[in-house]
Write a structure and sequence with these properties.
Layout lengths: L2 H11 L9 H17 L5 H24 L1
Helix pairs in contact: 2-3
Length: 69
């Protein structure tokens, strides 16, 4: 399963639905929400770090794709 879908599902578990039609904007909002869940002691450090890593990798991939077009 796609790891980004796992993050979307994790956020939905806590009532957060993110879709703005801007993929990079979505990723920025997801990062903010993941950070807030961690600060609220809902996510453990391992899940927090993995989610941030995946979000940042996807952001980099999308930005590189935009620059190549």
């Amino acid at each position: 399963m796609d790891k980004m879908l796992d993050i979307y599902e994790l956020l939905k578990t806590y009532g957060t639905y993110i879709y703005t039609r801007d993929p990079i904007g979505d990723l920025m909002l997801m990062e903010d929400e993941i950070r807030e869940l961690y600060k609220a002691n809902i996510l453990d450090i391992k899940d927090y770090q993995m989610a941030l890593l995946l979000i940042r990798q996807e952001t980099t991939k999308l930005r590189m794709k935009e620059n190549n077009q």
